[in-house]
Design goal:
The complex is a heterodimer of chains A (192) and B (83). Chain A has 192 residues and is mainly α. Chain A folds into 2 domains: 36 residues; 146 residues, no CATH class. Chain A is 66% helix and 3% strand. Chain A is built from 9 helices and 2 strands. Chain A has a two-stranded antiparallel ribbon. In chain A, α3 runs antiparallel to α8, α5 runs antiparallel to α8 and α6 packs across α8. Chain A is elongated. By secondary structure, chain B is an all-alpha fold. Chain B has 2 helices and no strands. In chain B, α1 crosses α2. The chains are: A mainly alpha (192), B mainly alpha (83). Chains A and B meet through α5 and α8 of A and α1 of B.
Chain lengths: 192, 83
């Protein structure tokens, strides 16, 4: 048996209690370093995510990033206002554009409010008038009436696109707010 | 212009702009940039400049994509022999 093999066995079966204790300390230090290296620096904050969904930017506001919160709110509001100006409230339709509505709902309750306004004002005929929609099959069962204020073609597509992108960007923003350590929290940990 | 007289903002769609709809790419890119830069910038000192630069980048990228597709459809595909 050579000298090298003896050295290896020396690590596995320490000769003295002093060597055994140094091995235990080394193992402990290794575990500590491993835990420090793998410890997540950002923890997920579900409250910030929920608040960011209720009002865009509020998630950033509560974690201490107030300026960012205001800017996120401005961006989402800009996309919503522009989208509704271009396409009208018919751009948000939970029944006819269901997949788009999932994206729009990322902006929070405003999507449900606008969809409710669309149903109560336009689809009911309270604003504008209900006219017969084209019925190529000439089947009386498939005949339906639509509002004369219904948006179609590029205007409807743009309105839907603007509001859906606002919702998707807000989801990105609220995930950022939920995983971001706030300014106060960060400075506290740096001081400590 | 007369069609704008019947326009009810937020209720009816914007009238008579079907021919220049690509212009709306500008506010779309601006809105996306406003939100993206608010999240991504480490400090907000260069926020306005960052938003303008990203808006221009998106518009230029879309223009180049459109140009590329135009060249493919108008010149490359007709040049492929049919047989």
């Amino acid at each position: 048996m050579g000298t090298g093999t003896r050295t290896k066995l020396h690590w596995v079966f320490p000769a003295s209690s002093r060597q055994a204790s140094s091995l235990v300390f080394a193992l402990r230090d290794f575990c500590r370093l491993y835990l420090m290296a793998t410890e997540p620096t950002n923890t997920f904050n579900p409250l910030a995510a929920c608040l960011g969904w209720l009002l865009p930017g509020l998630g950033h506001y509560v974690v201490g990033e107030r300026a960012r919160g205001v800017l996120v709110l401005s961006g989402v509001a800009f996309l919503w206002i522009t989208g509704l100006l271009i396409g009208g409230i018919d751009s948000v339709d939970q029944k006819e554009d269901k997949l788009w509505f999932y994206a729009q709902a990322g902006s929070g309750p405003i999507a449900f409010v606008v969809d409710g306004l669309n149903t109560s004002l336009l689809k009911s005929g309270k604003m504008g008038e209900l006219i017969d929609a084209p019925n190529p099959s000439r089947n009386p069962a498939s005949a339906k009436q639509v509002s004369s204020y219904k948006s179609v073609a590029q205007m409807n597509e743009y309105g839907t696109l603007f509001t859906a992108l606002a919702g998707l960007m807000n989801i990105v923003a609220l995930l950022d707010a939920a995983s971001r350590r706030g300014r106060t929290q960060r400075s506290r940990s740096e001081d400590g | 212009m007369n069609t704008f007289l019947a326009w009810i903002p937020f209720v009816t769609p914007l009238p008579s702009i079907n021919s220049w709809w690509p212009v709306f790419l500008v506010p779309l890119a601006l809105g996306i940039s406003m939100i993206y830069k608010a999240i991504r910038l480490p400090t907000l000192e260069r926020y306005p400049a960052g938003v303008v630069i990203m808006t221009v980048q998106i518009i230029l990228a879309m223009f180049l994509l459109a140009l590329g597709l135009y060249l493919v459809v108008q010149f490359l595909i007709p040049a492929i022999p049919a047989s």
